Amino acid sequence: IVVLTALVDVFNGLAGNDVLSGLGGNDKLTGGAGNDKLDGGPGDDTLDGGVGNDNLIGGVGNDKIIAGTGKDKVDGGAGNDNINTAKDGTVDAVKCGAGKDTVIAGKKDKVAKDCEKVKRTSK
User: Fold this and answer.
1) Model confidence at 4: pLDDT above 60
2) How many domains, the chain?
3) pLDDT digits over 32-56, tens only?
4) What is the largest distance, in Å, between two alpha-carbon atoms of the chain?
5) What is d(CA 14, CA 116) in angstroms, rounded to the nearest whole number?
6) Can you give the pTM of this predicted structure?
7) Residue of 70, 57, 102 whose CA lies nearest to 84
8) CA–CA separation, 45 and 54 (whole Å)
9) Cβ neighbours for 75, distance < 8 A, ≥ 6 positions apart
10) Structural domain boundaries enclosing 50
């Protein structure tokens, strides 16, 4: 478990199941291999799940969330988020939260009705 600062943080997880919490600031969190939990907290964060079945939480702010390979769960939180779950054709679950969100999703992904703009890919 890694809890970062209220400043801008950049952290890359390793192989294994990482838990990364960004707190405040505009954080960049990368999960790497393993079933990771990334929580950006408040701020305009960038989250990249990497390989594994990940839980990605944007929090308050205008976040960029990239689900890697695996069955991922994404919660954008409040803010105008850009979410991409269309990498590998597995079934990902996406909730967007308050704000004007844009999702690029695979054809099998489960996208909640609170996502304003959804583009489906052939994967």
Assistant:
1) no
2) 1
3) 999 999 999 999 999 999 999 999 9
4) 39
5) 34
6) 0.92
7) 102
8) 16
9) 56, 57, 58, 95, 97
10) 2-120
